[in-house]
Amino acid sequence: MLIDSYNRKIDYLRISVTERCNFRCQYCMPEKPFSWVPRENLLTFEELFKFVKVAIDEGVRKIRITGGEPLLREDIDRFINMIFRYRPNIDLAMTTNGYLLSKVAQRIREAGLKRINISLDSLKREVAWKIAQKDVLDEVVQGIEKSIEVGLKVKINSVPLKGVNDGEIIDILHYGMERDIPVRFIEYMENSFANGSIEGLSSREILEIIGKKYNFIDEGIEPGSPSHYYRLENGYRFGIIEPHRDDFCTHCNRIRLTAEGYLIPCLYFDEAMSIKDAIRNGDIEKATQILKEVIRNKPEKNRWNAGENSNRAFYETGG
Ligand code: SAM
Ligand code: SF4
Fold first, then answer.
1. Whole-model pTM?
2. CA separation (Å) from 13 to 255, 273, 315, 319?
3. SS3 at position 257
4. CA distances (Å), origin 48, targets 29, 52, 276
5. Total domains, the chain
6. Which of 31, 40, 108, 123 is most solvent-facing, going by the fewest CB within 10 Å?
7. What's the confidence (pLDDT) of residue 250?
């Protein structure tokens, strides 16, 4: 079992399989980075899988494949299936922008993926276009519908931004309600890569908007999840991810692996250690040691609640 210095059990690994993306979301990667990581520095699926086995053997029980955009790695179903065959009962999930999803949903489901979180910031074509800086809405919606059809457990992620999509919070909630899939609103997390002019809505502001239309009860933080859940009178449940809350990190159970092999203890912080050499040299003992050290060094808290910017790019850490 993996326990950090604040007595938190770490059993959740998020793997960013690529930093590349086909969107240019204002809050994440508004411009193409100056340079991409050279291909030879990226871990292959075989190399990532070697580390996945270490993590599972040490106690990881939940794995999420993310990016950048994970579906840009064409044979991602092969990687999913490697993990699935090693431990079929692992909670195996993906986060995607959904653009390429409708064509591969069936394939990734059959490979062993259980759950999928799809980002949907707007139901208006022009607004979705403005946020992603690309005409994306039809493809994303097709991806969501196809995922439901093939039996993946779907959640919607949505980042409300002031003056951009904050008028659509109820519409997005209804979209989830009509399909019986949870929506999770994410507070915008300030970072030095985002478009400096954007401003997110706080959890309180999101709840004020929803409260004008619906009564709801606070069901608290769900164990093992970053999300605070609320239930409407009609039974529908939605979540808000509130990294600005002082107690947000209290139950954090996760670490992150980048496509280059950096193991990162916290979404906010810069500290990271590379497992690449250990994995490439076949030194499993060393990889295990690095995993334990990164977990030991996991900070107590992020600093968004202190109003600071993170210097980590979301497209690198996988969100
Ligand atoms: N490309 C995929 C996607 O967009 O779903 C996966 C990677 S993305 C980095 C993972 C999640 O992080 C998405 O739900 C995205 O909305 C969220 N995200 C990215 N930048 C963010 C920011 N600055 N604040 C809050 N959420 C952010
Ligand atoms: Fe790409 Fe996801 Fe970042 Fe948008 S949030 S730029 S889709 S990685």
1. 0.95
2. 5, 15, 16, 12
3. strand
4. 24, 6, 9
5. 1
6. 40
7. 83
Quote the CA–CA distance of 116 and 98 in Å, as a whole number: 10
The mean predicted confidence, pLDDT, of the chain is: 94
Residue 207, in any domain of the structure: yes
- 143 compared with 271, residue with greater pLDDT: 143
- For residue 285, the CA-to-ligand 1 centroid distance in Å is 33
Tokens 């411009």 correspond to 31
Two tokens, residue 183: 């929506």
Question: For residue 307, which phi and psi values (nearest 5 degrees)?
Answer: 75, 20
Mutate which of 17, 157, 185 for ligand 1? The one with the most ligand atoms within 8 Å of its CB, which is: 157
d(CA 277, CA 51): 11
Residue range of the domain that includes 139? 12-310
Under 8 Å between Cβ of 14 and 225: no
Looking at the domain assignment, is residue 223 inside a domain? Answer: yes
Helices 76-86 & 45-58, crossing angle to 10 degrees? 30
- The tens digit of pLDDT for each residue in 81-113 reads 999 999 999 999 999 999 999 999 999 999 999
- The pLDDT of residue 245: 82
In a domain, 141, yes or no: yes
- CATH number of 181's domain: 3.20.20.70
3-state SS assignment for residue 65 = strand
Residue 207: CB atoms within 10 Å: 18
Give the pLDDT score at 243.
Answer: 86
Answer yes or no: is the C-beta of 157 below 6 A from any ligand 1 atom: yes
Confidence class of residue 14 from pLDDT cuts 50, 70 and 90?
very high
- Residue 225 has which token pair? 């999840």
159 CB within 6 A, ligand 1? yes
H-state helical runs in 59-179: 76-86, 101-111, 125-132, 137-149, 169-179
pLDDT value for 194 = 93
Of 15, 101, 119, best ligand 1 pocket probe by most atoms within 8 Å of the beta carbon: 119
Look at residue 319 and tell me if it is in a domain: no
